Every structure is written in C-alpha cells, then in structure tokens.
Amino acid sequence: MQQNIGFTLSRLPRLWRAVIDRRLAPEGLTQTRWVTLYHLWKMGDDQPQCDLARTIGVEAPSLVRTLDQLAEQGLIQRCPCDKDRRTKRIMLTDAAMPLLERIDAVVSQAREEMLAGLSAEEVDQLAELLGRIEANGLAIQAREEG
Questions:
Q1: Which of 20, 90, 111, 122 is in Cβ range 3.0-4.6 Å of 118 for a Cys bridge?
Q2: In 10 A of CB 14, how many CB atoms?
Q3: How does pLDDT run across 102-111, given as a tens digit for each residue?
Q4: At what angle do helices 60-72 and 49-56 cross, to 10 degrees?
Q5: Which residues contact 126 (CB under 8 A, 6 or more apart)?
Q6: Which of 110, 86, 103 is nearest to 18 (CA)?
C-alpha cells in the first residue's frame, strides 16, 4: 500500500476537480476560471494578482489570460495598487456573486459525496495526516532548495 499512496494522492485531486468540472460545465466555466474565482472569493477581495497566482499554484503570467477572460465576462475588476503601480489588485464584481454561490454549492456537494462513508472523526484525521505529509514535503523542498 505504501508504494501506491503517492499515485493515489496524485490521482485524487484530478478526480475531485473532474467531478466539479463536469457539474460546472453548464455554467460555461472551465477549471481555470472556476478555480480562480473560487480562490479569490475564499481569499477575500482586493488581492494582488501575484498572491492569487501563488495561492492557486500557477505563475503570475499564466493567470493573466484567465483574468482577461473573467474581466471580459464582467466577473472581476483589475485595479492598480496604490503602493506599486505595476501591481494589479483583483476584485470580484457583484455579477460574480450568484455564480460563486453556485460554485460553492457544487464544491460542497462534491466534497460531501467524495467523503461519503467517512465519519467526521475520520475526515479530521485524514486532514491532519495530509497536513503532516504536506509539511514533510515542504521541509524536503526547503532543504533541497536551500
């Protein structure tokens, strides 16, 4: 089992996102768009573009096209930062709120279904174990980069 755990851990996020993607397809949302909107909403409004990219796990230039599309749809606004004119801050528009509520409902339903059969204690334990694995990985990364 230990030999397969890495493969399982790598497949689960793709499977989870595929379920959500399929359910959000009727809303005209690609994965990059709903993930970007959802993270911005959860982070709170008025985020620097570079912080949003870091949270999502992409390079800032890679996020530009998605933000262009979301701005064209009227779902976000970009504003210059007061302290650094080169930095853009991203804000959700009122038009994004009904869509975000739909995304949240789909994500919550998928989470409930994906965790079906697990008790609350088991979910807490899983979260704690995954957190420890992530901390180990971050420590390895820091050691090898430093």
A1: 122
A2: 10
A3: 999 999 999 9
A4: 110
A5: 118
A6: 110
